[in-house]
## 1
Amino acid sequence: MSGLRAWLEAPVPASRAHARAQAWWLAWCAFRANPIAMVGLGLVLLLLVTALFAPWLAGRSPIEQDLANRLAPPSAVHWLGTDELGRDIWARIVWGSRITLAIVGIVVVIVGPLGLLVGTVAGYLGGWVDTVLMRLTDVFLAFPRLILALALAAALGPGIENAILAIAVTAWPPYARLARAETLTIRNSDFIAAAIVQGASTPRILLGHVVPLCLSSVIVRLTLDMAGIILTAAGLGFLGLGAQPPAPEWGAMIASGRQYVLDQWWVAAMPGAAIFLVSLGFNLLGDGLRDVLDPKGGRG
Amino acid sequence: MRVTLLVFRTLGTLALTFFGLLAVTFVIGRVVPIDPVLKIVGDRALPEVYERVRQELGLHLPIWQQFLLYLQKVLSGDFGRSALTGQPVLADIARFFPATVELATAATLLGVLLGVPAGVVAAVHRDRWPDHLVRVFGLVGYSVPVFWLGLMGLVLFYAKLGWVEGPGRLGVAFEDLLEPTTGLLLLDAALSGEWEIFANALGHLILPASVLGYFSLAYISRMTRSFMLAELRQEYVTTARVKGLPEWRVVWRHAFGNCMVPLVTVVALSYGSLLEGAVLTETVFAWPGLGRYITDSLFNADMNAVLGGTIVVGCVFIGLNLFSDLLYRLLDPRART
């Protein structure tokens, strides 16, 4: 172990991979010193572990009904109580973590590359391409996000795929802007000029030189945004436009617990607490990541 | 010369954005798997009737002509009739919008009154416990699902403690007593001197406004903090301190004075996001505003109303963005280039 540590903290890196590993190690050390960020990381890891081991953690089926045991309060058997159909709330929340994770994952996979592509192309090529792409971005940016997602989800019909699509369509513009701003600062650097002189093609310059440098700020922004994505998805689910029953989607669970909230508060309270913890985790993590990866922004 | 150019550019951007808004709502309206003709004539109508209505709606035209027709209608303020209420959509919106404005304004007031001082205090005590407190409180505000917070608030403060009034804008006993002039209940009640109604309306408003205001508080306090940190690093602050000015004067008069301009734009932007945050809050609190109108229409497949509402909220959004941009240029000489 001490050998690895000595290697990671060696004053002079021996190779490219060594230098990269050292950079990661230093970033991790800075990150580790930030207790708030570590709490965030813990919460996000908790979500991942829960989603991964859902069948074992849940202990029972999330959709199995037990009508004799409806709206039971939290007890030793049903840790978080049961809902209006006698389904175990703990099991539903545990299984629901997979849905949440899937939504966040798919939205990120669509939005990150799309924003990067639009932003870097616009920033690097400039001219009319830039104008057209940025006007398009502005149009989407000017929309109220939730309402557009609402109208889209309504038009396409309720369902989790459409909810994901609606969120993705409304979420990409800030990334395009961010990537464009970063690209503009990189575009006139000497190393780009060198690459051009060497005869590198435009796609090669974009993918090999520009995109990697935009990546860190986009990742930070994505992490900070994940909480917003989770909240929007939960909001759509709450309105009945997300995952359809009997899927254990957290927002929809709150909606179904709503009519019992005055007497059986736990039915709506528990899934809401889960949403809150997960989005808090992403917010704390994103905050910490920004401190580590973006030294110039400082603790602004 | 430069000013006219700026005006033209701004107007151009505005027109383009508005055009984009209409194009997107048009596309959404086409994608819907609902036949607008069937919605009007019912599924037992004769084929001739069906065809006639179809022609009246212009659905037999090529798609680009339909779009032009749509543009023409919307620009003349015709969003069609709501299938749910039977009223023109624009009249409906005019009736529901004041409730949303009242809610969002109250929430913004709360956010500014609490968020700005919190941000200033956090910046002054940077990295000490007031700072951490404000930061964590703000992050919680960012992370909590607003509809859930509203529900839990209702359980605690309405059902258990009885501190506030329940869902809706007014108690049943007070409904229809007041002739709407502005549509803002608090204002109407105050203007006509009905203080009992005023108190009741305030009791209904306080909880949804606090829930919604929490988000704006989180945003405003965070931005205030970072603006203040930037100002407190400046040399004129050091100069002011060296001159022996009392610390409160350095902070509030000198540093904070220079944060006002960006803060105004932040507040304008947060007001816009509150308008949409109101969709979920209004659903939870049965608040008869635009957000609830949109969601109610949505579940009745009333696309005219949904799209009309979307356009109106979009316009307000675009307007607020433009307003904050112009205000920024107006107030900050450095931005006037």
## 2
Amino acid sequence: MTRMAQLTFDDIEIGACIGTIDKGVMTTAHIFRWSAAVENFHRIHYDWRFATGHDQLPDVLVNGSWKQHVLVQLVKDALGPAGWLWKLKFRYKKMDIAGDSIRGRAEVVAKEVIDGLGFVTLRIVLTDQNDQVSTAGHAIGVLPVQGGRPVPYPFVRKPAYDALTLPADA
Amino acid sequence: MRTPATPKQRERGMEGTEISAEDFARYTGVSGEPKVAPTPLERDALRRFVQAIMDRDPLYYDDAYAMGTKYGGLVAPPLYPVHAFRPLPGGADPLDLLHDDPDADGSGGSDGVYFGLKPIPSPFKRLLNGGNEIEFYRCLAVGERCIAHARFADVTLKQGKSGAMLLTTIETRFTTEDGELLVINRQTLIWR
């Protein structure tokens, strides 16, 4: 992977896209690999005859549980090693099937310094090859402020942070 | 208040069923027994996992790199704990059901959701994911074992346009064996 220079809170502007991800085409082999890795034997993800016949689906499905890790990776990589993904909220909007391409992006919708740390609220989406949104939500990331203290690890929630809430509508 | 099943719900085997909000509200706050992952995080399980999510972050496989980070060694991706609970050898085989029922879906139940909670008995058959809200505090390190502590944070019966539905929010706190908080996952399930 290519490492970018560490982002700081001061670098970002509301409305800016600070991260993208492109997983390419999800073939049946990719979907199968995920099912095997997490031992999820639900047949709608690898058994075409069952998925299209018994469950009347258009094809085998890309796992929602896989897509949530793509969202995590999107935000984690955008924030860089000195940042921290604190909160993530999302809903699935449509199914992705074998042959669909999965892409994502993270855009800044709010930023605020609390307790010497930079909190950034992001709108996050995953789309397919037709730019149809399959998964949408928001995240709150924490970044160091220029010249400020590092983001603690493990991250510790403080009462002052409770004023930050994730937007209700994704 | 008792809510009768709609015609569509009766077609799905819910005929004659009457359901009340009070029957379900009493589950709010109910906790399950802590569920312990069968094994500590192993390098090979981590390798297969990060290959499957296609994340090449050296934090997950390069010891020298990981040692020099704030993590101090190899860790799993932040949301890995929800997948740390696999069947034990000698335990129930989720595929056994396929021998008796060729139409079984192979999912072996919903244990990846309940984490030790007993599912709420209800006449509802269809399950939709109503979304997740997750908080991250720490990553599970190689060699650490994960424990899930689940509870029903909210159980509410609602009347929708197409009939009654049961909204269930399960809050699962994932910790290390030493009690260090890793992740809090709140998942909303919609039963219809």
